[in-house]
Structure formats: structure tokens, C-alpha cells
Design goal:
single chain; 382 residues; alpha+beta; 2 domains; 60% helix; elongated
Length: 382
């Protein structure tokens, strides 16, 4: 490895590692608040909290690595300009390709590493997280659901249990209040059942409350004094905390789209109408496995000329540009994901849109950077 290549790679790597730890810390903070809520409110043991935190890290790493790489590129090349090293390299006859090639090659290397990471490590971590969460919810369900008490610890429902048979765990005289925003299309609901029981299925990581011989009472939004009733023999209510187990997933499916590898997503897509998974989610999650790792290359393309064009500001300017570009990238990504998940935008374009924007902007900046050299090269002799 040549001296300049080694020098640039070392500088970018050092700044990227620092940026990685900073970004990871800030992004994991939100998860820490959620996990602390599990510890304080739900009484989950500290070891399980640490395991959950460890399994959450891959989903954060998938995002923070490209972000940190952008910071590393901008800091390195803006410093080359500020310390006049870039001018010294040009004076020594080192062309711009020798200065930029190490970064492009490094970004491609990171891209392939992150494709492997996002396709195998991340789904495995997400699935392990869900399995551990299943055990926590299963344990909490057996502890929390007690007689003569209101239970408000599960998503979307408040339960009241009249009696509980300690030998068979049969629940009696059950009242279920459905928690939801009352609208004309979503009137208030109340479920009454003579008895029921907690059901668990480790094959699908499903925890549910099975209600027998009951009535669903549905209020009227327009005329609150009226009440409609529907009788049922059996009604099953899925139990969850923080929406982890059942979010965007068919209740009878073990894995959701975010726990699947690219091969599994493609196999699910090929099922067509036979697949129980949401088609939009399948396509979006498949394309994300490649588009987000490619962000390292896109950030290199835009970060290189931007860093070399930064004449003033040094580190502050580089960090400021990084924050702005990262914000723009994830605004585009969030916008694309929203409309892609809803099926209102082409799935591929929805996910790759931020990369296209960064590439186009980067090429424009490269033209601006190279314009003085092109002008000299094509100047007609007198």
C-alpha cells in the first residue's frame, strides 16, 4: 500500500470509528429509555435488559456505519485542504484520482461488509430479540393477569379478571376494554366473556388471551346511548408490549419481514398471493438490504469533493456538512419508506431515492472541483 493511500485510509478510519461511537450512543439513547421502562414499569430483570440492548445494537450499527463514514471522509479531506496538504500533493504532481481512489475503494469495501451484515447478522439479531421479548411477555402475562385487578400492561387492551382457578389457570368473568381513539369508523368497544385462558405458541412466538362464550359490545359514535352486541363462542386477543411481537406481521407467521434474509424475502415474494406477508413490506425490506449499505459509496461520492472544496471552517464545517447531508438522506429515506410501505411509490425508487440524490449532487460537486483543471486542459493555444 502506497504512503498516500495508507495515510488517507488511516485518517478516514480513525475519524469514522470516533463518529461511529458518537452516533451509536445518540441513536441508542431512545432504546435505552424504552428498555428502562421495561425495567422500572414491568419489572424485567437487568440481565434480560442487557441482552435486549445487545440485540438492538445491530439495527443501530446498520445505520451509523454509513453516517460515521461520511463524517470520516469530510473531516479527512477538509483537513487536507486546511493544512495545505492537498495543495502540496497537487504541486508534487499527484493527480486527484490518486487522492480520491483510496476513499472510493474503502467505501466499496464497507458496502460489501454491510451487505453481509444487513443480510445475515441483522435479521438474526432481530429474530433473537423477538424470541427474548416473547419470553418476557410470556412471563409477564402469567404474573400480571391476576383476579380482582385491572391489567393495563399490554398494548391496546385493559383487562379485568373476576376469578382465576389457581390449578387450571382458567380465568372467569373477564372484561376487556379496547384502548383506541374513538372515531365514527372506530366506535368504543367492550368485550365480556364467561371464561378464558392464556395461550402461548413458541412456533410462531404468539401469546394470546383466548375468550370463550362472550359478548362484544360496540357503542355508537353518533348516538352514544345506543349499543350493538355481537355474541361469540371463541375470541382470541393477541398480547404484546411495545408492539414488538406482532408489528407488521401475520399472527401465524414466525418471522416478520425484518427477521428475514434476502433469500427468504425473495422466496416469500415468489409465493405471490399465497404469501401471508405484506407485499410492500417484502419489497422495501429486500431493497433496503442493499440500498443502505450503498449509502457508504454515495456518501463518499458527495463527501470527497465537498471536503476538498471546503476552504474555511475546518472540522466545524465538516461536521456541519455531515449533519445536513445525513438529515437530507434520512428525510428522503423516511419519505420513500412511508410511500413505499403504503404501495404509493415504486419500491426500488422509494428506497434508492436518497442514494440517487447523493450521487447526482456528488457528481455536480466533482465537476465544480475539476472545472479549473478542465479549463486549463481544453484551453486553446495562442
Amino acid at each position: 500500500m502506497k504512503i498516500i493511500t495508507r495515510y488517507i485510509v488511516n485518517e478516514i478510519s480513525f475519524s469514522t470509528i470516533i463518529g461511529f461511537f458518537v452516533f451509536t450512543f445518540f441513536l441508542i439513547m431512545n432504546s435505552l429509555f424504552v428498555l428502562s421502562d421495561l425495567f422500572v414499569k414491568y419489572g424485567v430483570d437487568f440481565i434480560s435488559i442487557l441482552k435486549l440492548l445487545f440485540l438492538l445494537l445491530p439495527s443501530t450499527v446498520a445505520i451509523t456505519v454509513p453516517m460515521a463514514f461520511l463524517v470520516g471522509v469530510l473531516l479527512t479531506y477538509s483537513r487536507l485542504v486546511q493544512d495545505n496538504e492537498y495543495i502540496a500533493m497537487q504541486t508534487s504532481g499527484i493527480n486527484i484520482l490518486k487522492i480520491t481512489n483510496p476513499t472510493i475503494n474503502l467505501s466499496i469495501f464497507i458496502m460489501f461488509i454491510m451487505i453481509f451484515f444487513n443480510n445475515y447478522v441483522l435479521p438474526a439479531a432481530n429474530f433473537s430479540y423477538k424470541k427474548l421479548y416473547y419470553e418476557i411477555v410470556k412471563k409477564r402475562a402469567t404474573i400480571l393477569i391476576q383476579e380482582h385487578a385491572f391489567i393495563d400492561d399490554f398494548d391496546n387492551y385493559i383487562f379485568y379478571i373476576g376469578d382465576k382457578d389457581s390449578k387450571s389457570d382458567l380465568l372467569k368473568n373477564i372484561i376487556v376494554f379496547v384502548k383506541s381513539e374513538v372515531t365514527e369508523k372506530n366506535p368504543p368497544k367492550l368485550i365480556l366473556a364467561k371464561n378464558g385462558e392464556i395461550m402461548t405458541d413458541e412456533d410462531t412466538l404468539r401469546i394470546a388471551l383466548k375468550l370463550n362464550s362472550g359478548i362484544i359490545q360496540i357503542g355508537s359514535y353518533l348516538t352514544p346511548t345506543k349499543m350493538n352486541q355481537a355474541y361469540f363462542d371463541t375470541n382470541i386477543i393477541d398480547l404484546d408490549i411495545k408492539g414488538v411481537l406482532r408489528k407488521n406481521q401475520n399472527p401465524n407467521e414466525l418471522k416478520g419481514t425484518r427477521e428475514m434474509t434476502a433469500e427468504e424475502l425473495i422466496a416469500e415474494i415468489k409465493k405471490g398471493d399465497k404469501s401471508k406477508q405484506d407485499k410492500n413490506w417484502l419489497y422495501i425490506e429486500l431493497y433496503k438490504k442493499f440500498s443502505i449499505p450503498f449509502a457508504a459509496v454515495a456518501f463518499a461520492i458527495i463527501g470527497l469533493p465537498l471536503g476538498l472544496l471546503t476552504k474555511k471552517g475546518g472540522r466545524i464545517a465538516a461536521i456541519s456538512f455531515s449533519i445536513v447531508l445525513i438529515f437530507i438522506y434520512y428525510v428522503f429515506l423516511s419519505f420513500g419508506q412511508y410511500y413505499g410501505y403504503e404501495g404509493k411509490m415504486n419500491h426500488f425508487f422509494a428506497v434508492w431515492m436518497p442514494n440517487f440524490f447523493m450521487l447526482i449532487a456528488g457528481f455536480v460537486l466533482f465537476i465544480i472541483l475539476l472545472f479549473p483543471y478542465l479549463k486549463i486542459k481544453f484551453r486553446k493555444p495562442k
